Amino acid sequence: MTTERPNTERKALAVNLDARRYGSFAEIGAGQEVVRWFFRVGAAAGTIAKSMSAYDMSVSDAIYGHCDRYVCRQRLQDMLDREHALNLERLKESRGDTTAFFAFADTVSARNFHGTNECHGWMGIRFQAHPRDQDSQIIIHVRMLDTENALQQEALGIVGVNLLYGAFFLNHEPDQLIESLLDNLSTRRIEIDMIEFSGIAFRHVDNRVMSLRLVQLGLSSAAMFSADGEVLQPSEVLYKKPILVERGSFRPVTNVNVDMLEAAKAKFVKEEGVDADQVVSLAEITMRNLKANGDIDLRDFLARVDMLAACGMTVLISDYFEYYRLAAYLSRYSRRKIGITMGAASLVELFDEKYYTTLDGGILESFGRLFKNDLKLYIYPLLDRESGKLTTVDTLQVAEEIRTLYQYLVDKGCIEQLDTHDPSHLSTFSREVLRQIESGDSNWIDHVPSEVAELIQQRGFFGYRKPAVAKIAAKPVATTVPPLEVAQGLLASLDAPVVG
């Protein structure tokens, strides 16, 4: 049975009435929307050491140091570092034994007068869970979806109160903390597309799982993290960059997955306006794929992510099953070239009209959205092992009524065949590799990168079991033979002289 969480006013008051909590608020860009709640509900004198706002860039630089962008993660981190350090420097000796200090900060770009800017912000809290405790920290990135500035400010204030309350009262339950961030709001008003926990209170938290929770709970439609497990904010990674995506289940990551992305990148970098050094390559897993067997299996999820990390890939978890929705998401952050690579079997599914019944314009509307920003598909061939024939862009069979549409997209260059693939990998099929791992057939090793094979063997992914080591029982020596005669017999068998 779940307990109903308090509203925003009661949350702010609960923080104010907690005698242990004392700290600073620093807010840039949308007024002091968060701290206002704590002033409004009363008893704020016991909670707020300082409240400040620095709108002028020169003033902000004078306080926190120069920054090229003022609504970015680095600026938020500078604010948290400085404000928390000042609290400890000024107050630790006088009240450190009974006070858990904190610093809350946000830097936000709310809707401007003309409505032309991206409405988003960074928000975070550095805090002590208990007096004299080591520091802990939570950072989030929000996108404000209201169309009016006043409504955006209101939503921002509510999210900030939720974050403070969660840090103080739910830090031992990070899943509940994440779920509580949109209390008294909805996903129509606020999207949280990045969260990162760090410090002593969250030493057992895996931020990749927390990123997954954002998408699972509907707080965001996508989340991203790097090969080293760092949580990434999509707009900062994708901003004005050419993007190449491979969608897959990656159960496990096979040689085909790696070859497909490499072959696609070789073509992609030859496109006009694509700088090879700027390309962002993503391995995407959809929520539908993660839920294919029912509820999400976190061990299975982390196994896939660890294998992709071993191959140096940046991972995107998305709720965009339809490719046109994925394309729209990527186009939100970049006007540069976007490429998606897939196998020929996936291309067949892409042209199946049953997937577009919810669109008024059906498959035509879908493809209009998919290809409107000059997006390109790169197709990896499919081998029929019985006949030895390859399914390629030229030989792909689609329904007769949409054959002309298919050919038009091919002729226009929207769909291209990958011709630099490694033929030796064409006989690899991930489902078959998975069955081999589960059944103990060692042939699976030939179909995955060496780094992946090592991980599977070390950590027992996908039901892998180490081969049993046969034990040879020692044959007992008959006790009726005198010890000296036994020794003489052994030496004689080696043609060695007997000394006695």
What does this structure look like?
This protein is α/β, with parallel strands linked by helices. It has two domains: 8-205, CinA-like (Maf protein, Alpha-Beta Complex); 238-463, Rossmann fold (3-Layer(aba) Sandwich). Helix content is 38%, strand content 19%. The chain has 18 helices and 16 strands. The protein has an eight-stranded mixed beta sheet, with helices on both faces. The longest helix is centred in the first third of the chain and has 23 residues, at 73-95. It starts with 7 loop residues before the first helix and ends in a 7-residue tail after the last helix.
Oligomer: single chain
Major β-sheet annotation: 8 strands, mixed
Count of alpha and pi helical runs: 18
Under the CATH scheme, the architecture of the largest domain is: 3-Layer(aba) Sandwich
The dominant shape is: globular
Unreliable stretches: 477-500
Secondary structural class = alpha/beta
- Mind telling me the CATH superfamily name of the largest domain? HUPs
How many E strands? 16
- The proportion of strand residues reads 15-25%
| Rg, alpha carbons | 30 Å
CATH fold description of the largest domain: Rossmann fold
Protein name: Nicotinate-nucleotide adenylyltransferase
InterPro entries: Rossmann-like_a/b/a_fold (IPR014729)
Organism: Rubripirellula reticaptiva
